[in-house]
Amino acid sequence: MNTQQNVIPLQIACPREDGSHSSESLSVALRKGKMLRLRRGVYVPTEAWMKSFPSDRYRLAIAAESLQNPNAVFCRESALSIHDIPLLAVPAQVHLRVRNRGSVRTRPQISMTGSLSAAEFLRRAQQVAALERSQGSSRMLRGFATVRHLDSRGTFGCEQQRLIIPAAGTQQDRDLRRLVYVEPLEGSLIDSAPRLPFAGAIVALDAALRGGSCRPPVDPAHLGEMAQEQLNSQRKLRRFEDLLDFASPLSESPGESLARVRFHELGFAPPQLQVLVHVDGSTYRLDFCWEEVGVVIEFDGWLKYRQESSTPDALFRQEKIREDAIRSTGRTVVRLYWEDLMEPGRRRLVRLLTRAGVPRIA
């Protein structure tokens, strides 16, 4: 396979034409705080690692694993990440598929800072301007272990996909790519969803059912048939079927998927999704609606206010016009934020929904 190491921000220790070895200079850069070691012989610039989002650091770890082991076949949450399926929580491990029982093992993350403590490494990185004073924490230097899982029957298959890593710490186009071996999306969903918490499984399944810009929607009927063939545990099969029954392609973002889960967990009636409302020649699509009580819930993930195409003031104005138009129909509009969905106990969310009159299920 073409390693394509020139398009990802990783460096591999290898011999040079002059007879020296790049591992020497990479080790020196590590001791200075300029580089971090993700896998044996695979390094990443400290600044690129620290400025990346957690999900992108996970993808860098996957890329490092594939550089060290070009024939690695990624599975479970690692495969979902490669297929660009959103994960509610960043996994703690990189997952590989193996056919030999003797290859099943968990390999811990090697020290990313070599012989240096995390605190000393961060101090040196700041000295050489690889980090600013306020950047970085020892928690970001824990890395990701590697777990090898058995598939002796060859149930889940294998294909090549491009692992896409956004530019470090930005919202730019995803132009850092590497070909890797991975299990197909359907098999990865079937294997992963029953093991994930309910909310995380629904976020992943909703995304798969609605498809993406470079990924067609997954057919739920076909997915259910595959699950019956591939899951050898009735408990896992029942759980997967329950998850698939709850999942919906109409949830347009991880936040909307998580909101549906929270409504369900708190005992509120399920909403109608993506209802169209026509007001004065304009059409508005509602995130969540309970038509019987005239309540509309809009999820605001804040991301749209960072878009480059419009200023925050213009976006706020558009949202105000939209909200006023919906209210003019006699509906009550309530806004939810990530903080409401993640708050322990969800007390504010319960108050908002109850005050608006969202019905509860007995």
Describe the structure.
A four-stranded mixed β-sheet has the order 10-11-12-13, sandwiched between helices. Strands 1-3-2 form a three-stranded antiparallel β-sheet. Helix 4 (76-82) crosses helix 6 (185-192), helix 7 (198-210) crosses helix 10 and helix 8 runs antiparallel to helix 9. The chain folds into three domains: 5-183, no CATH class; 196-249, no CATH class; 254-356, VSR Endonuclease (Endonuclease, Chain A). The model is unreliable at 1-6, 169-174 and 303-309 (pLDDT under 50). The protein has 13 helices and 13 strands. The protein is of the alpha/beta class and 362 residues long. Helices cover 38% and strands 19% of the residues.
Which terms summarize this structure?
single chain, 362 residues, alpha/beta, Endonuclease, Chain A, 3 domains, four-stranded mixed sheet, three-stranded antiparallel sheet, 13 helices, 13 strands, 19% strand, globular, disordered N terminus
What is the gist of this entry?
By secondary structure, the chain is an alpha/beta fold. It has 13 helices and 13 strands. The chain has 3 domains: 179 residues, no CATH class; 54 residues, no CATH class; 103 residues, VSR Endonuclease (Endonuclease, Chain A, 3-Layer(aba) Sandwich).
Q: Would you report the number of β strands?
A: 13
**What is the alpha-carbon Rg in Å?**
23 Å
- Strand proportion, as a percent range, falls in 15-25%
Overall number of structural domains: 3
Put simply, the count of helices is 13
Residue-averaged pLDDT: 89
Protein structure class = alpha/beta
- End-to-end separation in angstroms reads 57 Å
Looking across the biggest beta sheet, what order are the strands in? 10-11-12-13
How does the major sheet shape up? 4 strands, mixed
Per the principal axes of the C-alpha atoms, what is the gross shape?
globular
Low-confidence stretches: 1-6, 169-174, 303-309
Order of helices and strands: EHEEHHEHEEHEEEHHHHHEEEHEHH
What is the helix fraction of residues, given as a range?
25-40%
